[in-house]
Design goal:
308 residues; alpha/beta; two-stranded parallel ribbon; 44% helix
Length: 308
Amino acid sequence: MYLRLGLILTILFILTGCTTPVTDSRIRVVATTGPIGDIVQAIAGDRVALRTMLGPGIDPHTYVATESDLFALQEARLILYNGLHLEAGLARVFAAINRSGRIPAIAVAEAVPEGLLLRWEEGDKAYDPHVWHDPQRWRYAVEAVRDALIAVDPAGSAIYRQRSEQYLTELQTLDTELRALATRIPPEQRILVTAHDAFQYFGHAYGFRVEAVQGISTASEASAADIRALTELVVSNRIPAIFVETSVSPRTIEAVQSAARAAGHEVRVGGELFSDSLGDPDSPAGTYFGMMRHNMQTIVAALAPAGS
């Protein structure tokens, strides 16, 4: 449910053009998610003052802006969000900002060509927003961030172009590394079971069948039928491990684990995956690249045959 007061305040700020005096000469940028903030920090560095709204463990599907978020948005020179309905609780705020035309608000995941987006079954023209789990698709978001920064800060264009090229090269290296790791799991055993359906792009990129208790949005509740169906899958395929997520309650995965045990199959929780956020800033998963490596390494350690 939206914070009506917060939405009203935001719209008033946008329409009236009210601003708080800012002494910092850097470009103020607001990014909603950790993966987007990682791009900004890497290619803009000290040229920007970055605020990332959704920190470690925060679920973007249900997030509602705080008062401090609203002030940060009002003061920003540039707002970068994922789009594709990921930040559903902020949709009306971003729509109001875009209508005003005062502050650029760019949905970076919507830069991915439509033919590379995966459809969300719950809507005819809705797409899965979790595109960052495939580095090859995420490159389009990097280019969108670069172009948005150049538009608001032309003087930094050479820096943004050079650093974005470096980031894109690192994405290619990451993709090659992840593909090599995935080969340690035989193709028929690449069945990834998670709490909510955030890893379809990952599955497409690295040859995994992805199944989840909840749907693409965590706003939808898992039913007893969902848990039964997933338990049958786990038991019939003798899946050795299933995974919890840092931004989703573990209770549904624990329910599948208990139900599988009752059916005579012991399945362990193979680890914790980062589905919708990065890790703590001072941890290896605190960057996009570290998060992606953590996820693949955790999956391989749990699903690969012993000695592979």
